[in-house]
Amino acid sequence: MNTPTLSRPVDRRDFLKFSAFAGGGLVLGFYLKSSGSATGAEVVKPVAGAEFKPNAFIRIAPNGVVTIVSKQPEIGQGIKTSLPMIIAEELEVSWKDVVIVQGDLDAAYGSQSAGGSRSTPTNYDEFHKLGATARTMLVQAAAQTWGVPSAECNASGTAIHHAASKRTLGYGELVAKASTLPVPAPADVKLKDPKDFKLLGTRITGVDNPKIVTGQSLFGIDTKLPGMLYAVYEKCPVFGGTVVSANTDQIKTLPGVKDAFIIEGTANTAGLMPGVAIIADSTWAAFSARKQLKVVWDEGKFANDSWDAFTSKAKALSSQAGGSTVLKDGDVDAAFAGAAKVITADYSYPFISHLSIEPQNCTAHYHDGKMEIWAPTQNPAAGNPMITQLLDIPAANITVHMMRAGGGFGRRLSADFIIEAAAIAKRVPAPVKLTWSREDDLHHDQFRAGGFHFLKGGLDANGKLVAWKNHFVTFGSMGVGRGGGAPSLQTKSGGSLDADQFPARFLTNYLAEQSVMECNIPMGPWRAPGNNVFSFVMQGFIDELAHAAGRDPLEFRLDLLSQKKSGNYNADRMTGVVKLAAEKAGWNPKRFPKGQGQGISFHFSHAGYIAMVAEVTVSKDGQLKVDRVVAACDIGAQIVNRSGAENQVQGSVIDGLGTMMFQELNIERGRIVQNNLNDYPMIRINDAPPRVEVHFLSTNYPTTGLGEPAIPPVAPAIGNAIFAATGKRVRQFPLSRTDLRWS
Amino acid sequence: MSKYTLQINGQSRNVDVAPDTPLLWVLRDSLELVGTKFGCGVGQCGACTVHLNGVATRSCMTTVSTVGRKQVTTIEGLSTDGSHPLQKAWCELDVAQCGYCQAGQIMAAAALLKENPKPADQEIDDAMTNLCRCATYIRIRAGIKRAAGIPIEGDAMNSMGAVPTVASLQEAVK
User: B142 CB near a chain A CB, below 8 Å?
Assistant: First the structure.
């Protein structure tokens, strides 16, 4: 399709090509949303008739219905509502006239991966131009129809108006004319002044809400195809283990079972791991048969790994020289020698799961040499190279339908569940839905890596921070790096300290070192990778230093933020949100009695500057209650959807609290110890703070996404408030590792 | 396999399944009522919550052979047109993020409000044991209060009134 992609600014030639196609007398499909397709996918079905289709994302029908394609995966971040809002804003359509349709994976849409809170910033400007270009053409169509200058016409409410003659033409009435017009040059397309925005910045409710609250087929796991079979897939509990043998002949005799077979798989722990598939005529038949499955595994060389051993090894590594230097400024050893006060602290956190509430699943249908995929994914293209390489299906023969996903948090950037479903489907003469159990999900996540930080800080006689050292001990697995060469230990997303991690570049004497321990545990991005734990460590230790210096934690931080030496960290933006959070919260830690406390933190990640103040109560027997969290967020010039933005921040605060309070995976004998929610607790409503207040600070910077940056400041704000309340410093996740009792 | 006649959303439905099949999978695979969700399979998360004779019940832990003549209500049967006060409140307050758990949350809340039409804050927290992984708990509380006609206090929720929805999607529900 000759349609504009979003990997670059909208190209006039692309518009022209498409416009010529649309206006060339062809009868094109007019797309209507199918409200209840058999598969659950949002099938768009062609209906005869003319349409105005200025680009791949907008279709206007003669009845005035405006269809906008949502190209990004919807995982709960609200993008299926917010990106179309941008087009609707510039197009001057009434939101009630808009139908949103989820697009499939299609090169016409440009990049479709939803990660790094990048969906908004990478599409924001282009989506404005897409809507404005179409609006400009509709204005021209009306002006030509009336024989008046375009400048006398204005667009609003899905119609063009000519004030002087009090004439109005609805968009539907302009479809035929607009389809014949050339696409205007970019210079002739005027974007709206933000002060005239009607939709952006308001609260628009999610476009799938009516389906969600009535239980209609919507999510990947809801997919149902004619003749579909159901699959489960058992993998070795030790990462990298392989199948020696399995009782598949016996399994095939069980009720409802259609087939059972071993898949050899590969060593890629984010790909097609070795295992045993069972295919049955219902989910429960497959689950039941699995209870009879007996597999002999070769558990491989990681079968003795344990968290306790990693902890001991990390401690040993911390006292040794070595590791790699992340950033070295000045001379920390000399600065510590000359410091009036030196304090040290060890911080650590365990491996954790994403636990997206919809278990991993994927439906695949192999027919006529083609692979068709229905996947709840954040990264719809991720499975295709593996499908081509391992199953010998060319990319042109792979179709991916993007299904709404029951949570992502980074988990669904990996395509292990997609390649498993495809590999199974290649051997089954029917569509097949692979459903992971919750136990599968917990045992075979792409985990948030654990880590250990050994910190040392120096204060001068005036209580000023003069030196900072962090030895970070992390995890990696053997592999070839991006630069090629011999295999070496590779850290994964979020498992490596970066040279700009605050307070880097704000101190004359600063040293960050990193040591890597080998494991074969699959590791991957977890909501605000790295940042979600680094913030806890850095903002916790900064708080320790402030108290050691006898200074107010807010004043200490503002002073530190004023000391920038180098780098791209925008200290002014951060200072802005720190002051806003403090003001809105009524910062005054001295006003709280013993057992209650106020804590502050801030963190930059994913182009967002966020500060938080938490107020907590800790009972004498050590029970934590978070009373209030105030969040101040600078994510740029424009909030797209205020309802979604507030929901993301409130959810992030409670998610961050829950991660701090509860989440922990233990590792013994090379495998995950926990099995399900009964031994891997997650935060519930009774621990959610009664008040989470969200404030936005609009600044003249590009708008960015909000799925991730509000996570990192949560845990340190609460940890620092706990210290203020009790004098007990939280240096480990989960909270159960710290005795909070006081008297 | 055994034959059962179940009372689902006011209708008699015949199924032929293994006696130990959880009601969850009968609903999803046999009856194509997919609003009831699989989350954990061990009764912990509540995504599979339905009503048995009006009582909120985890359908993943309820084998089909134990259902008998009990009236089963699923999210699809909570109202005929999405007009239950909780469904309306959930849309108006934009409670969902990913939305996967919300049918179970609404079913749990509906059972609560039937027993206790004006629950106190603590009673809401005590009754709502379902997991929301996106942690939309603040809006879940607000949604229950909106449906119950209880004023919503504090923070951003104050300024949230009814906001526009996509009309065509609402029509699709009807």
Answer: no
